[in-house]
Amino acid sequence: MSLYLRPGNLQEALDGLARGPVVVAAGCTDLFPATERQELDGPVLDITGIAALRGIESGPEGWRIGATTTWSDVVRADLPPGFDMLKQAAREVGSVQIQNAGTVAGNLCNASPAADGVPPLLALEAVVELASASGRRLLPLAQFLTGPRATALQPGELLVALHVPRRAGQGASRFLKLGARKYLVISIAMVAVRIVAEAGRAAQLALAVGACGPVATRLFAVERALTGLPLGDLAGAIDPQEVAGALAPIDDLRGDAAYRRQAAAELLRRAVAGAVEELR
Ligand SMILES: Cc1cc2nc3c(=O)[nH]c(=O)nc-3n(C[C@H](O)[C@H](O)[C@H](O)COP(=O)(O)OP(=O)(O)OC[C@H]3O[C@@H](n4cnc5c(N)ncnc54)[C@H](O)[C@@H]3O)c2cc1C
């Protein structure tokens, strides 16, 4: 039988990680389906007993989302409208049972191109905090995710929290996901949109698309093209060619690349229209 560690504090967990390779386990909703066996390989470090890693705190600089914060915790948290897209994504991660166990950090560390948490967290300008026995470092989420199933996490490191700057809580936001059915489904494409308005115009936009490339991505060129436009013109001004050019989807059994590009542009149009409605 494998060694199973469930420390009650972070230092013990980091010391455990420093001693050699371990499998970090949070909600296990990605880990267990991936093993297709009854036991995980190697020593297991269960981080769910570390109280300091769970929960969302608000401070002068912004918000700290602890690594073992579950999707249900996100849904229940008192957060400004800039986070609505993250709550909407949380409600679409699997089922309520999955949302009760699955964590935000687990979603990021698993690094599926179809991870629903990534587009909203990109649009919230999230920064990842990584810790090891020898120190801590911060990385923008876009630099943490390096490819399909690949992250910048080094041996001995744990993702301990996400930080969202206070400015990113502003505006109205929306998350939309397309799947082959409404619930319990892997995304064919999903989008997250956050818009800050000033005097009836879009002062700032954050647009992100997932499941349409090796990693989810912000659409900076589309954001620039829409900035400054009257709110009523935004949805119609989204250029599907420009959206398509920013994506690199694959063909798979859920949808081909051309369909994904079209779907992403349409989802963006609807999400922008929804956020504009909210702002009015
Ligand atoms: C039926 C079902 C439906 C699902 N539906 C969806 C869906 O609709 N959308 C979606 O995006 N996902 C979905 N998922 C996937 C999964 O539920 C989420 O990705 C969830 O957020 C994973 O979190 P977890 O805590 O369970 O991660 P775990 O399974 O515990 O861990 C996942 C990976 O991350 C590593 N890890 C976890 N936490 C840390 C940490 N703090 N530091 C370093 N490494 C860490 C683990 O070692 C492992 O490699 C579904 C899963 C199931 C089983």
Structure description:
The longest helix is centred in the last third of the chain and has 23 residues, at 257-279. 32% of the residues lie in helices and 25% in strands. A hairpin with a 3-residue loop joins strand 4 and strand 5. The strands form four sheets. The chain has a five-stranded antiparallel β-sheet. It is α+β, with helices and mostly antiparallel strands and 280 residues long. The model has no long low-confidence stretch (mean pLDDT 96). The protein is built from twelve helices and 14 strands. Flavin-adenine dinucleotide binds at residues 23-31, 33, 47, 67, 92-94, 98, 101-103, 105-107, 109-110, 115-117, 153, 158-159, 184.
In short:
The protein is globular and about 60 Å long. The strands form 4 sheets. The chain has a 5-stranded antiparallel sheet.
Widest sheet: strand order? 4-5-10-6-7
Helix content: 25-40%
Shape estimate: globular
Bound molecules: flavin-adenine dinucleotide
Number of helices: 12
Q: What's the story with the biggest beta sheet?
A: 5 strands, antiparallel
In whole angstroms, the N-to-C terminal distance is 59 Å
SSE blueprint:
Blueprint: E1 4-5, H1 10-18, E2 23-25, H2 31-35, E3 44-46, E4 56-58, E5 62-66, H3 71-76, H4 84-90, H5 96-101, H6 104-110, H7 118-123, E6 127-132, E7 135-140, H8 141-144, E8 145-147, E9 150-151, E10 158-165, E11 172-178, E12 189-198, E13 201-210, E14 217-218, H9 220-226, H10 234-237, H11 240-245, H12 257-279
Parallel strand pairs: 1-3, 2-3
Antiparallel strand pairs: 4-5, 5-10, 6-7, 6-10, 8-9, 11-12, 12-13, 13-14
Flavin-adenine dinucleotide binds next to strand 2, helix 2, helix 5, helix 6 and strand 10.
